[in-house]
Specification:
heterodimer; A: about 325 residues; mainly alpha; two-stranded antiparallel sheet; 2 strands; globular; B: about 70 residues
């Protein structure tokens, strides 16, 4: 999307004009906006003008989807094979989360009649977003980088080198969240159509029985509102995930700024006193943000679907 | 003068923070007050406060994205 492209352009400028002095802003933008088409993991040809190359965010997307699918199915299958259906261990936690999402997010908004229709979608959203957000907090790729640097010594353009190129949160990419919000957009329309019929759903967008001049004003506003909701969902998730990265990087870059000003020991001092404790604090905050953003996305999806089903004006 | 857009972006960011802080502050005070009056309804009150809170946050985040756009695209 637009923002992502702007970030990528900026990152490329930063990479080309790599100055000798440490530039915090350019480093941060470069780190946050990576995964451009230039350093794709797997290069694929263009089809109809769309570049199908697999960038790192796409790779992370597949990894998260596969992990969530395998882990959840494995746990549920193993649970169903038992003689006595008593959940234990991981299944216990899974069941608690599923029950929470169904009873506290979906049911109050959608209503008893439609819970079984919409709970699967909302649950899929929840687990996928939670997994994608949480994997961004785990420094797998930095560990891989150490391994590569000290043990493997792969080449400049190898798969692992490309993989190491920067951050890893798939949901920090505006394209990913836009796709998720598009599913929500479709779900709202499907919910309205299923509950009220095709024509009635579109008539439900505006309240009935008003004087006709009001409709001239109201219909464009309601149509705009229809598109603004998924747009806000997109921006909220992606900007929240990107924001945490930027904050952590900005705080950690104090070390290098101070080292440039007053030598290596000043940098180490700044790191010990300010940067590392603050970065640890923000990382702890990020754990909460990861959970809350998954909750918010699913809650808002449930609320919008519920609004299409229970129309009240 | 070619860097004046940074000024606008910084000013905008400050105003976003003021607005969002005022909004969240009012939410929190109202919720705390109503829970203090009616502790048994705490769950319902938290539920009712949640959704507008996230909508408010969404507006603030949107404004921040536009500020970022001002900086990146001039």
């Amino acid at each position: 999307m637009f923002v992502q492209e702007a970030l990528q352009e900026h990152a490329q400028e930063a990479a080309h004009g790599a100055a000798e002095k440490f530039n915090a802003g350019e480093t941060i933008i470069h780190h946050v906006a990576n995964s451009s088409h230039e350093d794709a993991l797997i290069h694929l040809p263009k089809v109809l003008g769309i570049d199908f190359s697999v960038t790192k965010h796409v790779f992370m997307l597949w990894l998260v989807a596969a992990t969530v699918f395998v882990v959840v199915t494995w746990a549920v299958r193993r649970y169903l094979k038992q003689d006595r259906l008593i959940p234990s261990g991981f299944m216990n936690g899974l069941e608690a989360v599923v029950e929470f999402v169904r009873d506290d997010i979906v049911q109050p908004n959608v209503g008893k009649k439609w819970v079984r229709t919409w709970a699967p979608l909302v649950l899929t959203f929840f687990f996928f977003i939670l997994g994608a957000n949480a994997i961004g907090l785990i420094p797998i790729f930095d560990v891989l980088g150490l391994l590569d640097y000290y043990v493997l010594h792969t080449g400049e353009h190898s798969f692992i080198k490309q993989l190491l190129h920067g951050g890893t949160t798939a949901t920090a990419n505006f394209n990913v969240t836009a796709a998720l919000a598009t599913i929500t957009f479709g779900a709202i329309i499907v919910a309205g159509v299923k509950a009220h019929g095709f024509v009635k759903h579109w008539m439900n967008l505006v309240p009935h029985g008003l004087a006709w001049p009001i409709y001239i004003l109201l219909i464009p506003i309601e149509i705009m509102g229809m598109f603004v909701r998924p747009f806000a969902l997109t921006m909220r998730l992606a900007a929240n995930m990107t924001g945490g990265h930027i904050a952590i990087l900005a705080i950690l870059s104090f070390v290098f700024l101070f080292a440039e000003m007053g030598g290596a020991f000043t940098g180490i001092g700044a790191g010990l006193i300010a940067s590392v404790p603050l970065a640890v604090g923000i990382s702890a905050l990020e754990i909460i943000v990861v959970l809350v953003q998954a909750y918010v996305f699913t809650l808002l999806t449930a609320v919008f679907v519920g609004m299409a089903i229970h129309v009240h004006h | 003068m070619d860097k004046i857009h940074y000024f606008g972006a910084a000013l905008g960011l400050g105003m976003i923070v003021i607005g969002a802080a005022l909004g969240i502050g009012r939410f929190a005070s109202a919720a705390a007050e109503s829970i203090a009056r009616q502790p048994s309804a705490a769950d319902k009150i938290t539920g009712a406060v949640n959704l507008p809170l996230f909508l408010l946050e969404g507006v603030a985040i949107l404004a921040e994205v536009f500020v970022l756009l001002i900086v990146l695209m001039k």
